[in-house]
Amino acid sequence: MKKLEEKTIDSEVIYSGKIIDLHLEQVELPNGKTSQREVVKHPGAVAVLAVTPENKIVLVRQYRKPLNREIIEIPAGKLEKGEDPEVCALRELEEETGYRSTKLTYLQSFYTSPGFADELIHIYYTDQLEQGKVQLDQDEFVERMEVTLEEAIELVKSQDIFDAKTAFAIQYLQLKEDRS
Amino acid sequence: MKKLEEKTIDSEVIYSGKIIDLHLEQVELPNGKTSQREVVKHPGAVAVLAVTPENKIVLVRQYRKPLNREIIEIPAGKLEKGEDPEVCALRELEEETGYRSTKLTYLQSFYTSPGFADELIHIYYTDQLEQGKVQLDQDEFVERMEVTLEEAIELVKSQDIFDAKTAFAIQYLQLKEDRS
């Protein structure tokens, strides 16, 4: 298994930003040749699949500058330095939606774009919600929505739900419903 | 719905690379204030969930420099400029696994990291495979694997399968099996 490894020969910081850094790495390939790898460093993220007592999914509509459009996603946010993912998930859920969870269940973690970025996202589930308080960041503008699973599936088809973590979350609920 | 939009005031190219570009965008927020957005530009990607006549999933083990480790993924690759995603999917499947598909079904597309990147990935399914020819890029080293759905679920648990597109693909197969 060792033979697939790419050893770092040199690493240059191209950009160090507010959310991401960009490194350019010179690597030695398994065949001894060298190549360059562009690597985006990201602090990691959390997302919460939250279901209300009325069996509706809590979503947020948000303008995403990289896409130059709004999409609808499960509540999510970046990890602060050293922050526990579960603490972050509880915080982001309340800040973005005004819901406080009294019981969060860890579902799964995955890298979002392993070809060029190290962003790892941790996905949680909750159906235990109580009223909290919306508190958005200064440069954050989101609208809360609550939809049924059937409506969420329609939002996938219309490409209003159009991101990996939310697509995963919808499938998770479909599997859960099938098996209940 | 217009009120969530972030208008670009200024855009600076920080880096223009082999696979990604990095832009720093000055935006006007919905409240009239300004902020900065770091945006990674990516050409987009495809991935193929391929199932053999023996009902095994075709996977590739690959070293991912951003993660500094190997992970196991469904075959995937970047779109060439102007390339049709289905053509790209057929090409990448054969190049990485040696399987040629005679019938590809489009499943879904999603953004992988809408907070900082515009990478859009298109996921295809096939269970119609014939023998083709492995032909890797000069700096690409992958190992083909074929596993049952049960084995794939174990690889998710052990975090050998550890990325968004492959997690989605495994769930897709679970749903398909549940409903058949």
Can you tell me about this structure?
2 copies of one chain form a homodimer. The first copy, chain A, has 180 residues and is α+β, with helices and mostly antiparallel strands. Chain A folds into 2 domains: 2-41, no CATH class; 45-179, Nucleoside Triphosphate Pyrophosphohydrolase, CATH 3.90.79.10. Chain A has helices spanning 85-97, 149-157, 164-179; strands spanning 7-16, 21-28, 34-41, 45-50, 57-64, 69-73, 76-78, 99-111, 120-131, 142-147. The first copy, chain A, has a 4-stranded mixed sheet with strand order 7-4-9-8, sandwiched between helices. A 3-stranded antiparallel sheet of chain A has the order 1-2-3, with no helix packed on it. In chain A, helix 2 (149-157) packs across helix 3. At the A-B interface, strand 2, strand 3, strand 5, strand 6 and strand 8 of A face strand 1, strand 2, strand 3, strand 5 and strand 6 of B.
Q: CATH superfamily of the largest domain in chain A, please?
A: Nucleoside Triphosphate Pyrophosphohydrolase
Q: Considering DSSP H and I runs of 4 or more, what fraction of the residues of chain A is helical?
A: 10-25%
Could you tell me the mean pLDDT of chain A? 96
Instruction: Find the biggest chain interface.
Output: A-B, 72 and 73 residues
- Give the CATH level 1 class of the largest domain in chain A: Alpha Beta
**Helical segment count of chain A:** 3
CATH architecture term of the largest domain in chain A = Alpha-Beta Complex
| End-to-end separation of chain A | 40 Å
Determine the CATH topology of the largest domain in chain A.
Nucleoside Triphosphate Pyrophosphohydrolase
